[in-house]
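Protocol check, entry for the methods section draft. Step 1: assemble the input record (protein sequence plus ligand SMILES). Step 2: submit for complex structure prediction. Step 3: store the structure tokens unaltered in the notebook. Ligand used here: S-adenosylmethionine. Step 1 record:
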Amino acid sequence: MALSCTLNRYLLLMAQEHLEFRLPEIKSLLSLFGGQFASSQETYGKSPFWILSIPSEDIARNLMKRTVCAKSIFELWGHGQSPEELYSSLKNYPVEKMVPFLHSDSTYKIKIHTFNKTLTQEEKIKRIDALEFLPFEGKVNLKKPQHVFSVLEDYGLDPNCIPENPHNIYFGRWIADGQRELIESYSVKKRHFIGNTSMDAGLSFIMANHGKVKENDIVFDPFVGTGGLLIACAHFGAYVYGTDIDYNTVHGLGKATRKNQKWRGPDENIRANLRQYGLEKYYLDVLVSDASKPSWRKGTYFDAIITDPPYGIRESTRRTGSQKEIPKGIEKWEKCPESHVPVSLSYHLSDMFLDLLNFAAETLVLGGRLVYWLPVYTPEYTEEMVPWHPCLELVSNCEQKLSSHTSRRLITMEKVKKFENRDQYSHLLSDHFLPYQGHNSFREKYFSGVTKRIAKEEKSTQE
Ligand SMILES: C[S@@+](CC[C@H](N)C(=O)[O-])C[C@H]1O[C@@H](n2cnc3c(N)ncnc32)[C@H](O)[C@@H]1O
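Step 3, stored output:
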């Protein structure tokens, strides 16, 4: 009770993209900056308007320095389901909280923001005039005001059924915008070194936020590719390190991914990518190494492991091995004379995720986070398939659809227990182990045409 008295109400205006990823992002960032997310607030669904109760404006500002899922935050002065309700709510807002922003020496501007409806200029002016009862004493300045106030009207989510009157109306003092512009400024289209699986900039920042990556952290990506995830983590001030099994990718050699270029040019590598964004000082190193055989001494090195393992669709799932490791008749391997060059074996997705969880459990600091993508065949997906580990607690599990029958799920786990040797075998005793092996067939199903066939069947039944 005492806590709720000290909380202030803020309005978050969320972006209408990657809807499932928004709540875990905001929760993770609030926990990073000392604000809590009350469980009663978890009913936002798809709406772009979220009311947050948090202790201070500082927390709100810190949140906005990181979020790519929220557009803006406002100190909420009033809220109602009709103009009358809004005005009476505003009349109840303590004047002493308004006065510092409305006094005669100040300049201000009022903006009207609508969701799912466009208003005429005349309608907007009417709404501004209706607020005359507020004790504004400063001067209007449309170009460079000290304070910006907004009326935000919510006309629901259905573009085919726009109501005459808004469902909700909010009035607040604008505090800060989020980091949506990073999606453009870090766009893969303008990046120096890319590959055909380079992670989209927006999702990379979301992953870093789910991972609670912060200044001076050490972040590791065991399937680093062109380092898209390292870039996002370095932007938030973390020192970054990665490995990849592919020599050409790590050394920036081989065929280029860009259309008009045949071969990768000199200096097309992850370090140069970081340099492009002024982040080179955060580069620790990248090595050619097989994630199934980590070469680390025992210890807890990483604050976060943020990664996008291969699904075998646009890149292969391989691991190094020797022919002796393969039971005859079970696996096919590339014929290769006995030499120091490791033979490359196929790497089952289920084994890859078990290795990843064990590695994270061993090498993360307590409280450190593992964030990774899990590909799933949606008709067969159940929550039990999400890999489990006694040292890692599931924080969030969000779906991104890839096709009508496949998706990938962004899994975030937090290390909650120190790793002991026996923990690496716990999955064998777990109920998760069997359904989880279904992942081995993800690639087969993706390519088998089964998804295309089902989509065709669905289309013909709709016709
Ligand atoms: C989905 S891509 C990662 C893309 C990366 N996030 C980016 O932004 O470019 C997966 C990467 O895992 C690598 N890989 C496959 N098997 C591996 C293994 N056993 N150990 C380490 N890396 C592996 C592939 O070479 C590929 O570069």
